[in-house]
Specification:
alpha+beta, globular, four-stranded antiparallel β-sheet, Dna Ligase, domain 1, Glycoprotein, Type 4 Pilin, 5 helices, 225 residues
Length: 225
C-alpha cells in the first residue's frame, strides 16, 4: 500500500468535497483546507471526485475530474477536483445549487499508476483484475483513464475494459494491442455517499476481497457496511 487512509479521513474527504461545491455554487469561492486536516491528508496523492445524480434509485454520472498522479496535497486536490467536477466537466452543464439534494459525492484516492510490463500485448487482460485495478492508456499525445469501479458498473471483463479505456483516450478500441501503446494500472480507496448527504460507504480496493465487496455493493446484494 502506498498510503494509509483511515475511515475517519475518508469520510472527511467526502464531506469536504460536498462542502467545497456547496460554497462554490453560492458565491464562486474556493474554500481553504480545514485547520483540523490530518497530516496524512496534506501529503501529495492522486484523487478523483465523481458526482452522480440519483434518478429512480439509480446512479447517473454528473461529473468526474481529478488528478491521476500525486502532484497536489490530497486535501487541496479534493477541493479542486470537486469544484471542477461540478462546474467544468465538458460532458455536462455546470451543476446547479438546486441539484445538490439529488446527487451523491464519491472520492477515489489513488495509488500511483505503474506501468504494466508484458512480453506480448495479449497478456494484458490476464494482468488486470476487474474491480481492483483502474487503467490509464497512453499512446503518443492521447491518454485516457477509467477508475476501478467503472467496469463493475458496466459489467465489462478485462478485455472490454482495455477497449473502453482506449476509446476514452480517443483511440481505436483495439489500440492496446499495438506497438507503442502503454498501459498503466492503479488501485484506490473508494468512499461514497450512500444517498445525498447520507451514510458514507468505504471500500479499500487494495485489500484482499475489496474488489468482491465492490461488486456486491454494485449489485445491491448486501447492506453496505
Amino acid at each position: 500500500m502506498s498510503f494509509i487512509l483511515s475511515d475517519k479521513e475518508a469520510i472527511f474527504l467526502v464531506k469536504l468535497a460536498r462542502k467545497a461545491v456547496e460554497e462554490n455554487l453560492k458565491d464562486r469561492s474556493i474554500i481553504s483546507p480545514p485547520t483540523e486536516t490530518s497530516p496524512t491528508l496534506q501529503e501529495p496523492c492522486g484523487v478523483f471526485v465523481t458526482i452522480n445524480s440519483i434518478e429512480q434509485g439509480r446512479k447517473r454520472l454528473r461529473g468526474c475530474i481529478g488528478f491521476p498522479y500525486p502532484t497536489h496535497p490530497l486535501v487541496r486536490a479534493v477541493i479542486e477536483a470537486a469544484i471542477e467536477s461540478a462546474t467544468r466537466d465538458p460532458r455536462f452543464p455546470p451543476l446547479s445549487a438546486s441539484e445538490l439534494g439529488r446527487v451523491v459525492f464519491e472520492v477515489s484516492v489513488l495509488t500511483p499508476p505503474r506501468l504494466v510490463e508484458v512480453s506480448s500485448p495479449q497478456e494484458y487482460p490476464s494482468r488486470i483484475e476487474v474491480g481492483v485495478d483502474g487503467l490509464i492508456v497512453e499512446k503518443g499525445f492521447n491518454k485516457g483513464l477509467l477508475l476501478p469501479q467503472v467496469p463493475i458498473e458496466w459489467g465489462w471483463d478485462a478485455e472490454e475494459f482495455l477497449c473502453q479505456c482506449c476509446m476514452k483516450a480517443g483511440l481505436m478500441p483495439d489500440c492496446w494491442v499495438l506497438r507503442g501503446t502503454k498501459i498503466y494500472k492503479f488501485s484506490c480507496v473508494l468512499a461514497e455517499e450512500s444517498e445525498p448527504q447520507g451514510r458514507i460507504i468505504i471500500v479499500d480496493l487494495r485489500q484482499e476481497g475489496g474488489g468482491e465487496k465492490l461488486k456486491r455493493l454494485s449489485e445491491h446484494e448486501e447492506d453496505p457496511a
